[in-house]
Design brief:
RNA-binding, eight-stranded mixed sheet, OB fold (Dihydrolipoamide Acetyltransferase, E2P), BirA Bifunctional Protein, domain 2, 2 domains, 32% helix, alpha+beta
Length: 505
RNA sequence: GCACCGCUAGCUCAAUGGUAGAGCAGUUGACUCUUAAUCAAUUGGUUCCCGGUUCAAGUCCGGGGCGGUGCACCA
């Protein structure tokens, strides 16, 4: 213990050394930042090598020291802020001897603010010639390898903050996610929608087919679920006369976890009175194209080696036509429950508990693999769509589409069913499926039927999984890589971390 | 839930069943234009855990933990 190398102990010793020089790294409360690294790189892109001009303006940068290259009476350091990193040039001649000694006590990971003019070194690197600096926080933990960063996937998820520090592309993805959502709001707001917030704690988790998380209210002493969709509440607001509403919110589904599923995820749901599914389709493709352009920089996103073009208009493909085209299957085979189960057998797919389930499995197998470029698949069978309005000239199908790209479902939209009697019958039918063993079928929400009885205007609605959209636009193939803190099983007790028993000096 | 793969120093990775190693980080020193700085010296291990086989286990076997991928599940 006496001679064992101890990186954290060494850093604590450095902390004491700073304090002995009258610098307490944890006493600073603010620092006036006047520039970010990326801004300076652009502003001084054409600067030629040489010492800074007499009248060169001083800038103040703040961030984390990512590397230090000491060279006697000159020190080079890289300071990273949220935009990029920028080289600091510290020379004894430009500072007091005391300040220079303080800088020599700093190390990789520490957070400082630095002031000085920008110049370009002989080696051609744009740099801040430091005339003054403040220590803003000391890092007591050693950072991972400066070249390889943090590779261990598990550690990256569990300690995302370290991942963000040392793996710049991760920070870029998370910033892109933030911008995608912000840009989405801007676009939607510009079309006259109100953003609303509906309950996440509900007594009936409806609006989708999924198993909910269960919880309990102490005050009311009743069981509660976390919502699995926002749909039924948002449509109540259309009944209430809000006309155009949307919610970007967290949804919880107590189901499997894999590359494309996290138990909590973010969904946009949006409803517009007096629109039908065709109106929604064009709104949908305009939104996608806009996001791709403004956030991704181009209408084309590279995903799994495919160049996905979000240039409008997207391809339109009928649901039944798709089966005909890719599998040679007929309408009669698909819309008949018994024939459909035979098809499952023909394709070697395990038994399904219901007609709707069977259709989904078949679609997944036969059609989905072909949907690379953005495609609206429209005209879903009514058995698959308990909340969608039937087609006027084909009552077995609904005015519903799903948007696919790169074999992933990106959006689901339909003209909303507003006939309360039809809605009631479909809920009753679902109740039978639930009784037959389909766990994912939600319990009927009878108050929703009552709401429809007050009168829901013709309305189109859409749901877009934000996480998968971000995956698509940032080229990530795992949902965990677009979530800041994906759910991880907790480590066994004691395995958690070093339990630092050091107290004495 | 099932299958496969992974887990070795703070980080990235080595090690035909035969003394656990390297680079980076750390520590000490030198250096006034470096940028994976360089040079010299140097520290560092419950090989995820428990048990077994063996003269000998990081390595083989059994059980467990955590993670990743695939399948199942998830309209």
């Amino acid at each position: 213990m006496a001679n064992a190398p101890d990186p954290i102990g060494a850093r604590r010793a450095r902390l004491e050394a700073l304090r002995e020089r009258g610098v307490d790294p944890f006493s600073a409360t603010r620092f006036e930042v006047t520039a970010h690294a990326a801004d300076l790189s652009v502003r001084y892109a054409d600067l030629t090598s040489g010492p800074p001009a007499e009248d060169a303006p001083e800038w103040a940068l703040a961030g984390r020291i990512m590397s230090v290259r000491g060279q006697g009476k000159v020190i080079f350091a890289d300071l990273a802020d949220r935009t990029a990193s920028f080289q600091l040039f510290i020379r004894l001649d430009n500072l007091s001897a005391e300040a220079f000694e303080v800088f020599r006590e700093l190390e990789r990971g520490d957070i400082i603010g630095a002031r000085g003019p920008v110049f370009r070194t002989k080696a051609g690197e744009l740099s801040l010639s430091v005339t003054g600096f403040e220590v803003l926080a000391k890092s007591l933990q050693p950072l991972p390898d400066k070249w390889h960063g943090l590779q261990d996937v598990e550690k990256r998820y569990r300690r995302r903050y370290v991942d963000l520090i040392v793996n710049r592309p991760v920070l870029d993805v998370m910033i892109a996610r933030s911008r995608i959502i912000a840009e989405m709001r801007r676009f939607i707001d510009a079309h006259g929608f109100f953003e609303v917030e509906t309950p996440t704690l509900v007594t009936v988790a409806g609006g989708a087919a999924a198993r909910p998380f269960l919880t309990h209210s102490n005050a009311l002493d009743i069981p509660l679920s976390l919502r699995i969709a926002t749909e039924l509440y948002l449509k109540r607001l259309i009944v209430g006369g809000m006309e155009r509403v949307y919610e970007i919110g967290r949804i919880w589904r107590n189901e499997g976890i894999d590359r494309t599923h996290n138990p909590e995820f973010t969904m946009l749901e949006l409803y517009a009175a007096f629109w039908n599914v065709r109106d929604m389709m064009s709104f949908n493709e305009d939104l996608m194209a806009h996001l791709a352009r403004s956030v991704h920089g181009s209408e084309t996103a590279l995903y799994r080696g495919d160049a996905i073009s979000f240039a409008t208009p997207f391809r339109r493909l009928g649901y039944l036509e798709a089966f005909e085209e890719y599998g040679g299957l007929s309408r009669d085979q698909l819309l008949d429950a018994d024939a459909c189960h035979h098809l499952l057998h023909d394709f070697g797919i395990p038994e399904s508990p219901s007609h709707s389930h069977a259709l989904d499995k078949l679609f997944e197998r036969i059609v989905e693999p072909h949907l690379i470029q953005p495609t609206f698949v429209y005209g879903y069978p009514v058995v698959l769509s308990p909340l969608a309005k039937r087609m006027k000239d084909d009552p077995l199908l609904t005015e519903r589409y799903e948007l696919f790209a790169a074999n992933m479902e990106l959006a689901n939209a339909f003209t909303e069913l507003n006939d309360p009697d039809d809605q009631r019958r479909r809920f009753e039918l679902q109740a039978i499926e639930k009784a037959a063993g389909d766990h994912e079928v939600p319990p009927p929400d009878w108050d929703f039927v009552t709401a429809l009885e007050y009168g829901l205007p013709p309305t189109a609605g859409i749901g877009i999984g934000i996480d998968r959209l971000v995956m698509m636009l940032t080229g990530n193939e795992s949902i965990r890589d677009v979530l800041l803190f994906p759910l991880q099983r907790p480590l066994p007790p004691g395995d958690d971390d070093e339990a630092e028993a050091e107290e004495q000096t």
